Automatic annotation (TrEMBL):
<feature type="signal peptide">
    <location>
        <begin position="1"/>
        <end position="21"/>
    </location>
</feature>
<comment type="similarity">
    <text>Belongs to the UPF0065 (bug) family.</text>
</comment>
<dbReference type="Pfam" id="PF03401">
    <property type="entry name" value="TctC"/>
</dbReference>
<protein>
    <submittedName>
        <fullName>Tripartite tricarboxylate transporter substrate binding protein</fullName>
    </submittedName>
</protein>
<dbReference type="InterPro" id="IPR005064">
    <property type="entry name" value="BUG"/>
</dbReference>
<keyword id="KW-0732">Signal</keyword>
<dbReference type="InterPro" id="IPR042100">
    <property type="entry name" value="Bug_dom1"/>
</dbReference>
Length: 321
């Protein structure tokens, strides 16, 4: 799949390459991230941003604005000048889930400009090794025996970790407590210490700790097992919950009315950066798979994801808590 993505990125990069000459930034570019340093969004932005600096000829300054499930970064981007000096790495939380669950003072599709998708993200459901559960059914049985007592942490309201826990509650018939954090870096500290009982978190956040036996992976919230940990079952197969699936992805956005030459230039540079072997290898180590797109494809994708997840969120009873 990684090879297919890279071939697609190559094609997009070649098609968009003429746009590279249409706009030249004249000052450093702020790249807003709605979560604290150390999580998957932050790692993705810094990895791609390092190559973008060369391609765009200006420093990329990553600016972390954690809080409200990414909404603080979104609002800052909405209010930024439409000159390419401020862009945002959005997530499924900030671009799809939060607009469904929360009344926002802006509209994602009209007050932000779609530039392009960056990566698809691998997540794992993990517990600290001191916890007694060695399988997902054991965790679910404990939650059924102690309704309202077990807790799960997420990197923020509306993210894949939040929805994944809410969906597990709904489909498994359990009741757990959601504990939102301001990013994956802060979340990991409390997972490791056992302050929260389990979490669905990005591979970028938890994989090093799984490999060091500081966390135990019980399942993957995806339709297929991950090549990173092929022996870890999916949630659907481990807990006999057919249809359980939580996707995760990131995408680049800009302010409203961002001129098309800037959109084209940044899109082409993003796609070219993800074709770089070193960038692709570094992303893959963190469970991040390049998933480039055109701006129009990203707009359609956000609309489709919103239509897909709205009924799921309503059935799961997920809200901005």
């Amino acid at each position: 799949m990684l090879t297919r993505r890279l071939i697609g990125a190559t094609t997009l990069g070649l098609l968009a390459r003429p746009a590279l000459a249409q706009w030249q930034p004249t000052r450093p570019i702020r790249m807003l991230v709605g979560f604290a340093p150390g999580g998957g969004t932050d790692i993705t932005t810094r990895t791609i941003g390092a190559k973008l600096q060369t391609l765009l000829g200006q420093p990329i300054v990553v600016e972390n604005r954690p809080g409200a499930g990414g909404n603080l970064a979104s609002e800052a981007t909405v209010n930024a000048p439409a000159d390419g000096s401020a862009l945002m790495m959005g997530t499924i939380a900030s671009l799809v889930m939060n607009p469904i669950m929360t009344r926002l003072p802006f509209d994602v599709l009209t007050d932000l400009t779609a530039i392009g998708r960056s990566v698809e993200v691998t997540n794992f459901l993990v517990v600290a090794p001191e916890k007694p559960w060695r399988t997902l059914p054991e965790l679910i049985a404990a939650a059924k025996a102690r309704p309202g007592e077990l807790s799960y942490g997420s990197s923020g309201v509306g993210g894949a970790g939040h929805l994944g826990g809410a969906l597990l509650d709904s489909m498994a018939g359990i009741e757990t407590i959601h504990v939102p954090y301001r990013g994956g870096g802060q979340l990991i500290t409390d997972i490791l210490s056992g302050k929260v009982d389990f979490s669905i978190a990005t591979a970028a956040t938890v994989l090093p700790h799984i490999e060091a036996d500081r966390l135990r992976a019980l399942a993957v919230p995806s339709p297929r097992r991950s090549a990173l940990l092929p022996n870890v079952p999916t949630v659907a197969e481990a807990a006999n919950l057919p249809g359980y699936e939580v996707a995760n992805w990131y995408a680049m956005m800009g302010p409203r009315a961002l001129p098309r030459p800037i959109v084209n230039r940044v899109n082409a540079a993003m796609n070219e950066s993800m074709r770089d072997p070193d960038v692709a290898t570094n992303l893959a180590k963190h469970g991040l798979e390049p998933a480039p797109s055109t701006p129009e494809e990203l707009t359609g994708f956000i609309r489709a994801e919103t239509a897909k997840w709205r009924p799921v969120i309503e059935r799961a009873g997920a809200n901005a808590n």
